[in-house]
Amino acid sequence: MKTTPAIPTPDDAALWHEGRLYLADQRLLPERAEFLVYDHAAEVADAIHDMVVRGAPAIGVTAAYGVVLAGRDAFAAAGAGWRQAIEADLERLAASRPTAVNLFWAIRRMRDRIAQLDAADPTPALLDEALAIHEEDRAANRRIGDLGAELIAGPTDIITHCNAGAIATGGYGTALGVVRSAYAAGRIRRVYADETRPWMQGARLTAWELMHDGIPVTLQADCAAASLMAGGTVGWVIVGSDRIAANGDVANKIGTYGLAVMAKYHGIRVMVAAPTSTVDMAISSGAEIPIEERDPAELLGCGGRRIAPAGCLARNPVFDVTPAALVDAIVTERGVVLNPTTEKMRALMG
Ligand code: MRU
């Protein structure tokens, strides 16, 4: 795995170039912009786990490219027996992070393609499929952006949490795709970006993306959202999602649930922008969504310095579930679901 001096733009979470996978190292942004280069699926699984790449749709796109690398290695090692040889890598990719269903959706789609192939080198066909997944996600986000923007009467301020931008997806972004389209249409005055402890995706990535596009953005501590809401300028909370259950319950970055509760109290609407690859109709409610718990060390320090006393216990769930009753709109590329219920989600997903 080597580092190149290439500079990622906010549109480049993952790139396939001359037979290799390039991932913008999101842990370093915005201080340093570097791509890491990957040739093997096991390294890609580690990159997902270690947050080199993050954001549900970007994780799915990356996993798809990981399957391409797995197929190439399996064919080099086992020839016509590649179908068996690829299994360990597929399992390793699937074990990289538990919450974003886009990961499992992408691996399932690559498996469906694998099932159609013969004993010949699978690399070209798998690459076609991964590139299609990437391109379809980009196109879905453009559509989500337009549909979400139509819901905003505006001009209004909005709050977003974490980063659901271009760098968290195949391009353009989900929540930030809506922001981009709505800002272009004159419906958003200003974006308030929660900093998003402990990984600071809002401070590091959302602020960086929006400043790059010239969209007015103000950073705030996560706990500053309620007092901003009380001020009366905020019309919408707009967030992405890692998994949406069949009844419309939404898993997203830890803190989203609290924002939705506060929004309800203040009469502010909540929009969840996500492609249908984020919808998991196999689970009936958010109670079944596996919530990732990460190393408490991520919380016990800040900026490379320990802040909590030695021996202090910490819990570090990195997602929470917002009940459907607190969600005003789920915006997907197939359409908008207002006040989601199981019946409406079934009608959307077919
Ligand atoms: O832990 P992360 O940074 O992968 O969490 C990301 C989020 O919670 C995003 O809001 C979600 O994946 C949607 S990204 C379009």
Could you walk me through the main structural features you see in this protein, from its secondary elements to its overall organization?
- This protein has twelve helices and 17 strands.
- It has helices spanning 41-49, 56-78, 82-85, 87-94, 101-115, 123-151, 175-184, 201-213, 225-230, 256-266, 297-300, 342-349, and strands spanning 2-4, 14-17, 20-24, 35-38, 156-160, 188-194, 217-220, 234-239, 243-245, 250-253, 269-273, 279-280, 301-302, 305-306, 319-322, 329-332, 335-338.
- The mean pLDDT is 96.
- Helix 1 (41-49) packs antiparallel against helix 2, helix 2 (56-78) packs parallel to helix 5 (101-115) and helix 2 (56-78) runs antiparallel to helix 6.
- It has two domains: 2-139, translation initiation factor eif-2b, domain 1 (Four Helix Bundle (Hemerythrin (Met), subunit A)); 143-349, Translation initiation factor eif-2b, domain 2 (Rossmann fold, 3-Layer(aba) Sandwich).
- The chain has 350 residues and is of the alpha/beta class.
The named CATH superfamily of the largest domain: Translation initiation factor eif-2b, domain 2
Give a count of the beta strands, DSSP E runs of length 2 or more: 17
The number of helical segments is: 12
Helix content: 40-55%
Pathway: Amino-acid biosynthesis; L-methionine biosynthesis via salvage pathway; L-methionine from S-methyl-5-thio-alpha-D-ribose 1-phosphate: step 1/6
GO biological process, one term: L-methionine salvage from methylthioadenosine
Keywords: Amino-acid biosynthesis, Isomerase, Methionine biosynthesis
GO molecular function: S-methyl-5-thioribose-1-phosphate isomerase activity
